[in-house]
Amino acid sequence: MSHISSLTKYVGNFVDQLYQSGVRHIVISPGSRSTPLSLTFAEYNRFQIWVDIDERSAGFFGLGIAKETKEAVVLVCSSGTAAANYFPAIIEAYYSRTPLIVLTADRPHELRDVGAPQAIDQIKLYGNYVNWFHEMALPEETDHVLQYVRNHADRAVKKSTDLVKGPVHLNFPFREPLIPDFSLSDIWGGEDSRFLMHYRANDTRLDKHTLADIYEKLRSKQKGMIVCGPHDSPVLAKHILLLAEAWNIPVLADPLSLLRDIRGGNETVIESYDSILKSSKVRDRLEVDFILRFGAMPVSKSFLQLVQERNIEQFIVDEEISYRNPSINGGAHYIYGEPIAIADQLTQLPLSFDLNWLAFWQDLNRETKDILRSDQSLLTEGTAVQGIQSSIPIKSTLFVGNSMPIRDVDTFWFTSDKEVTIVANRGANGIDGILSTALGTAATGKHVTLLVGDISFLHSINGLLMTQNYDFNLTIVLINNQGGGIFSFLPQAKEDNSHYELLFGTPQNISMEKVAALYEIEFELVTDWTQYQEALNRSYQNGGVSLIEVQTVRNENVSWHQSKWQEVEKNTLTVLEETRDVR
After folding, report:
1. Backbone angles phi, psi at 107, to 5 degrees
2. What's the angle, vertex CA 265, arms to CA 263 and CA 267, rounded to 5?
3. 448-453 and 269-270 strand pairing
4. Is the pTM higher than 0.90?
5. Across all residues in the chain, what is the average pLDDT?
6. Is the predicted pLDDT of residue 250 greater than 70, yes or no?
7. Is 323 exposed, middle or buried (0-12, 13-18, 19+ CB in 10 A)?
8. Going from the N-terminus, what domains does the chain have, and what CATH number goes with each?
């Protein structure tokens, strides 16, 4: 792929998506670095093009069009002070809530901060006076990047014309040569790349035209699934289950979805989907028609791989305009509104899908759980999760650390009716502050169980100072594998690399018993399943703060997990072969 080809198709897809998303007016101020944008807008031949040599005037001219049409207007300029001259109009657009899309060309990264001409710092140039800013990636023509550029073109329109309208700013770094080649084929992308639809609820509910459109998109499909990621609504889970029962489709339930510990249970819930989807062979053979997602993106990496590898039609429900869709490949329809109300409205649609498809997932889920439960008497990182689930008090809280603990909970925490609330810091997925967040959760009076790895524990150990001044009921299950266990599952561990232990393994060799003594909390080191269960039960009965240490060996833990996943893969492929009509 040549630079010119990548540049042409990258900008071509961006320009086409702006038109598809409703833009009609382009105000261009001439410049060299903005050549790819200016020429491509003109070549597209569907926009009304306006040329104004003065960026300050151009900004206000575009503002006037936007005020009159109530539609987003695009401004295009070169790099440097040209972009700065838009600022007065952008301030006015911000305060008057007028939709503008500001496209500033820029030098590529290697020409910044080295004295290159017309290279100023354009990152967040307009500060808080825009609804959204994004630094665009350098041009490529891979399917992944072309979908990315479409998503961001569409997002720019939606962010500028949101309920609170205003300007948005996209900064485009371009390398020379700058002239696109319009003789190339497929410059604008095919019809299948124009996959983005947005539906907005009015007064929390979708109108009849929107519901009719969703119905038309779904009525010919047979093999769909609901995916429920992290969310914090205790009521939403029950409404999602009613929707799944009405439609006869499985619910892939993230551990933070509040669907795995709901009283009464539900046979549509598939909690072992991460293990099932780990195999690329399985993902290749599953014929999924559509995905309806509530909540944030699930913890499961294998689900992310499924939607990255396959062009599956997705419907993503969210309270507000957002783009929580890191899969990028394959666009998505976004349904904005109150999720409970939307779930109820969708339940009323006269849709019902292939019963064999639901039965297939239910059987596969049961068999997968049997495999994952097969050696519960062993004390491993996986069975430590099952030990907590068997002992934890009803209506209590499980706080889960990031890295491997949340992934083991995803794999080994199965549905029950204990009504346990599972909580984790999955906003940014960091390991910092885990202990303090868990203690803050326990401050509400509930008994909280914290499952945490040794690095996360040591990283936030100062949080235990709070236990000296306040009373908490907190059971800490510490998985101590002498370092960063999650890296053992990643390619870094497979390379013959003498730096692995120093940079990734990071063994600490800290006595956890002495840590517990320092903070005057109860401590037990457990070495087998029986000891572990007894320690958990004592902690729950006695209350207060206690630390239970489970020591494991990293490479043995990897082998144990992989043997489970290989067995799941073998079983799943066999089931797929036996049920070709529903796969």
Report:
1. -70, 150
2. 170
3. unpaired
4. no
5. 92
6. yes
7. middle
8. 3-190 (3.40.50.970), 197-356 (3.40.50.1220), 381-551 (3.40.50.970)
